[in-house]
Amino acid sequence: MNNTDKARNTMVDTLLNKKEVNWQEVLSTVISGFDCSTGTIHFLDNNTALLKVQAHQGIPAFLIPKLSEIPIGKGMAGIAAERMEAVEMCNLQTDDSGVARPAAKETKVEGSIAVPMILDGKLYGTLGIAKPVPYDFTEDEVKDLMSIGEKISKYLHA
């Protein structure tokens, strides 16, 4: 873990150690730490098996209803949850794989990633961030995002 990764993790640790966690602040810190412009945190609702948005930033208002509840297996967040691994796109605008939902292109972001938040093999939700330019997240960045997801899962598990 390099110094940038350590700094990001330390900032998230500080926010998760507060008596009451401000999920918007956690997301903003992650977005800023990865030099991104948009992002979401979804928690898994075990009763409905839906990912429910807890925080979002940089998402156009008309898209909020479409991402408020995401079925497992749908869109980047849903597929990351289903596969229990990171799902990444260098350029969401030109992607034709079918992974990104058509409305996702309305965000105007390009380089994007969604990671599952996992603790001890159990899914707690997803974390997604994106940049306004084409971008491939590095292996270290993916590991760091997965680590942040695990930290959030530990908080939710407690």
From TrEMBL:
Question: Pfam families from the xrefs?
Answer: GAF_2
> Which residue range or ranges hold the GAF domain?
24-153
Highest taxon above the source species: Bacteria
Q: What is this protein called?
A: GAF domain-containing protein
Supply the source organism for this entry: Arenibacter aquaticus
Q: What is the lineage of its organism?
A: Bacteria, Pseudomonadati, Bacteroidota, Flavobacteriia, Flavobacteriales
